[in-house]
Design goal:
It is built from one helix and six strands. By secondary structure, it is α+β, with helices and mostly antiparallel strands. A three-stranded antiparallel beta sheet has the order 1-2-5, with no helix packed on it. Strands 4-3-6 form a three-stranded antiparallel beta sheet, with no helix packed on it. A hairpin with a 5-residue loop joins strand 3 and strand 4.
């Protein structure tokens, strides 16, 4: 057996080990991202919002499995990305998708709003 043949086999083994390692990391990352985004199957969305000096009116939608009780947070942020207001909302079992409006008091004029931290229970 020649040295170049042995080197090629060694390279193939090394590439195989690296490939398996990368695949394991990719699957692990997908699992972490999936669970960090909240309960799978729950999709919150801000449809629109109207800003005022000390409040924001939020039009939002939350889609979820019908049998689940889901709690989410509506959060308003300022120009420095600091939290200016927060409200907890609950979507009861028996509804799959709800669309609502909510007035959210803020400590100053907000620049953005999100529906986040959705969880069952």
């Amino acid at each position: 057996m020649s040295t170049s043949s042995t080197a090629r086999k060694g390279n193939m083994v090394a590439y195989g080990v690296i490939g398996v390692f990368v695949a394991i990391c990719a699957v692990g990352w997908a699992i972490i991202v999936g669970y960090s985004e909240g309960k799978p199957g729950v999709t919150p969305e801000v449809i629109s919002f109207q800003l005022a000096d000390r409040s924001v009116r939020v039009h939002y939608q939350v889609s979820k499995p019908k049998g689940e009780n889901v709690r989410c947070a509506i959060v308003a942020y300022g120009t420095d990305h600091g939290e200016l207001g927060r409200a907890e909302i609950t979507i009861p079992p028996g509804t799959g998708s709800v669309e609502r409006h909510q007035e959210l008091p803020t400590s100053a004029r907000a620049t953005s709003v999100t529906v986040t931290d959705c969880r069952t229970g």
